[in-house]
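Summary for the steering committee. The consortium agreed at its last meeting that each partner would contribute one worked example illustrating the joint modelling workflow. Our contribution is presented below. We chose a case with several input lines so that the handling of multiple components could be demonstrated. No manual editing was applied between input and output; the record is shown as generated.
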Amino acid sequence: MSNEAHMHGHAEVITHHDVHHDEHHVHHHKETFITKYIFSQDHKTIGKQFLITGIIWAIIGGLFSVLFRLQLGFPEQTFPILETFFGKWAKGGVIQPEFYYALVTIHGTVLVFFVLTAGLSGTFANLLIPLQLGARDMASPFLNMLSYWFFFIASVIMFSSLFVHTGPASGGWTVYPPLSALHQAGLGSRIGMDLWLVSMAMFIVSSLLGGLNYIATILNMRTKGMSMTRMPLTMWAILFTAILGVLSFPVLLSGAILLLFDRNLGTSFYLSDIYVQGQILPNEGGSAILFQHLFWFLGHPEVYIILLPAMGMVSEILSVNSRKPIFGYMAMVGSLFAICILAFLVWAHHMFVTGLNPFLGAFFVLLTLLIAVPSAIKVFNWLTTLWRGNIRFTPATLFAIGFVSLFISGGLTGLFLGNSTIDIHLHDTKFVVAHFHIVMGVASMFGMHAGIYHWFPKMFGRYLNNTLGYIHFWVTMIGAYLIFWPMHYEGMAGVPRRYLDLRGWHSFNKFDDLNKMITVVSIIVFAMQLMFVFNFFYSIFKGRKVRTQNPWGANTLEWTTPINPGHGNWPGEIPEVHRWAYDYAKDGREFIPQTEPVGPNETSH
Amino acid sequence: MTTTFIIVILLLGFLITFQIAKASEYVSVMRGEERARKQNNRINAFLLLVFLIAGLIGVYYCNATYGPKILRFGSAASNHGVDVDNMLKITLIITGIVFVITQFCLFWFAYKYQESETRKAYYYPHNNKLEVLWTAVPAIVLTVMVGFGLYYWFRITGEAPKDSMVVEVTGSQFKWEFRYPGKDKVLGKKYYRAIDEGANNPLGQLWDDPANHDDIYVMGEPLHLVVNKPVKLVINAKDVIHDVGLSHFRLKMDAVPGTPTTMWFTPTKTTADMKRETGDPDFVFELSCDQMCGQGHFNMRGTIIVESQTEFDLWMAKQKPKYYMAFPSKAPDFIPGQDTTKTKEATAMLPTQK
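What follows is the complete predicted structure of the assembly.
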């Protein structure tokens, strides 16, 4: 139908042919299996590569969480099967402390970076940028391909670190030195730590190549008529995500390299006055806190690198399925921008109890709580988007609604932790674990699920099994709240995070039942995710076929491509855009695609 | 055996769910996809409403079950703890209200505005008045929260009172060591290269500094504090970063190697008070390491006794400066030939203090 819309256009539709003239032949050259599926430069294939690699990592990371939940829920029990699989790491069927800490460290690293950064932005930025902007591919398809392969190398290195005999890194995903800098400080600080750092360096290269490409493409390669303010919110979200990544990841790289120097070359960037395991070290003058500044200068924007793409997709999906424009488009863009700026100015709120100057801390409190303003705007706008809509509950819609619910819950607990006074008490307790899992982990995962359910038809020309989608949503939604809501109470009782056994503590040892419940639920939720993965791969080959070009009745350009678009996306000319992406329910029409010229009698918004 | 059993059950459940899902897909194709879709829509809209109601009940139930187990308001055992609890109360009330309203709107709208043939979606792209309203209101509320927060924050992190007692806390894998300044009320200088555990100098005290000669070293037994007397902790770490976590006092401060930090507070309740208040005869103030420090992190525990000045003085009188253990011949009660037994006596006395 959008092609018809195309026909209605007048002379100016023709004039843009030559604009993209030089890109026309891209999809003509011959493709072998290797260039098509492995070293592919097609953004859609690269997106799928990111997604599938991300899914594999999500399974590993999720499995690790189930393993350490077993220890947390049943510390007195033995699981002989674990010894069968993990040998000395689970001696006598009991998860050893080194193993436990390795599990939490890799769980955190993998989910934050490999799943929710690469798997989420990597997938949807690659898939959606050219499709929603009306471009044949990314600005540099070759760099784009490299971006995936650097991620792949990072994955291989991280994966190999799981098999070294002293085990992978185990100092927590934040790898604070001196613990991560001193070989003597623990098994996880040996070769596993070096591999972790090298892997992260590769990952940063990957994310920089990707990010620069996303920015260049969004700024330069929009089709005719696609002004910045006509872009779908997914594009804005991805643009800000990429800017955040490009500006902050290099800082982590420098932090990681200095740490590598301290570990292996005898420098003292982070080390001073250390007496470890009976040994006096010569290092003097370094600052352990310096690393935390470098780490969190990325680490905090990283939270938004994870969250923003999910926000963008949720905005798009809620609007499409409410059959109603997103409420306050400019406010949505503005709040994304505000979050993007503030994200750089709040990193030290992770460091209120490091001995940070209290006066400096005050500014970080102010700026941190300030983020609640754009976040509140977004929430209210989503709510208003649903209000008086005509909502279709596809699995994607449900996950988007789940995202908003979780974002509210987790965002509000951020007001506790961002306030330094309360943070003194709740810092590094289970409250923090509950907070960031809800707001960053589970919420973004919901955004990612929403995106997968929504754009799966575009990716593979087939649908995911709908019923499984509903079951997946409800089990995950209920499970997420059952796992993380009561965990706040543990934190309010002062239970520190990263404690694998509370039996030695008089004040903390009173949550046996709760921990058992959480473990059981997390096993069920994990099994449900496996079911989703099964659905995913099954549906790629056997899913119901997509028969209409625009199954959701959406306005954006990706639904004007053929059901299975080839390299180059549009067989003919690239469509021209005449309006914003959110003309739903306008003038009595259910939806008006972006390609349709503005009619003479149309009301303006 | 049970493990295999559980795995088999899981697999079976997996298979059955998948078959049901597949069958339902066929059924929906047979019955007409549009009809099936509409039915699914109604079911899910209803479930969203159920989730809202069940969720709010769950929130209440969760609070009823676990609320009594948290550190209750009013149970804080330090002056700063009261401030923290107050801030927590303010934040809980504000966020609680926002939580209920927004979650209600979200699920209620979803249910109310589910797809229906009789309704058309309302074209409502923006409304500047509304936008200004919900920018301004959160901004004002947050200003209040920041205001209170910073007021308390500066009270907590401000200078310690002049008459504070000083205690040094040192963390290392995986134990806590304490040092009192002794009669001169000055902690002697130390340098990490002087650490020599074999020569009775675990903290690296510089014995040239006379201020070190009366410093009292405590390890493996509780830290003693005086009720209603401000105490300033000088916090160090020897190897990696640790954290002095005092949840009953609502306080926390990192112990960073090479960068000493400080934290002060006034304990307002003695251990005996807390035993009475909690009705728990085994109550003990615990000092937990709250910063990941290695494989023994979860067991890096210290305990604290808060007592009256008299009790404290009695305990302190029995402590011997570390200096005399390092140099037994310097001890005032030194009798040549008996130094080893003396040291033993001093250590033997320690457990009786518990």
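Chain B has eight helices and ten strands. Residues 213 and 323 of chain B are 5 Å apart (CA to CA).
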